[in-house]
Design a protein that fits this description.
The protein is of the alpha+beta class and about 150 residues long. The chain has one domain (about 20-145). The protein is built from 5 helices and 6 strands; from the N terminus they run H-H-E-H-E-H-E-E-E-E-H. The chain has a 6-stranded antiparallel beta sheet, with helices on both faces.
């Protein structure tokens, strides 16, 4: 089979297959009006730098599902369970008592360009932090907040 034919077949199969990527997850749930969606970036993050160290963070996006019905929460929980995105590295993956949490990172040029936290269960949430973050800064935050 010729290369263009193979590429075309793969592209068509991808269109038909459910999207289990981080981008698809955020895009899908951003459309629902019951989901509380807060996005901070640009000017607000520049202003935050005046008051303290932002450690390279340029944007934060949070999706809260508290006001959503159980059907939507279940759909998110299924999406989290089936999440597979090889453009991210899994930093943490934990599942306990029906609660599922994943922390994913995208690394570019030795910096973390994106941190994604997906939390399922009874109080699901999606969080995305973007920027040019030094891995050492993340480690310092973890070390300073150990109990």
């Amino acid at each position: 089979m010729c290369q263009p034919c193979i590429s075309k077949n793969i592209a068509e199969a991808n269109k038909k297959a459910p999207q289990n990527t981080v981008a698809a997850l955020f895009a899908d749930f951003s459309k629902n009006k019951k989901v509380t969606h807060v996005k901070v970036g640009g000017f607000i993050m520049a202003l935050a730098k005046v008051f303290g160290e932002t450690m390279g963070v340029s944007g934060v996006e949070v999706f809260d599902f508290e006001e959503c019905d159980q059907q939507l929460k279940d759909r998110l929980n299924d999406a989290i369970k089936n999440l597979k995105d090889n453009t991210y590295e899994t930093l943490v993956s934990a599942s306990e008592g029906g609660e599922r949490t994943k922390i994913l990172v995208k690394i570019k040029d030795d910096f973390i360009s994106e941190i994604v936290i997906v939390a399922g269960g009874s109080e699901p949430a999606l969080v995305r932090v973007t920027g040019k973050i030094k891995p050492d800064d993340i480690q310092n935050v973890v070390n300073n907040n150990k109990k």
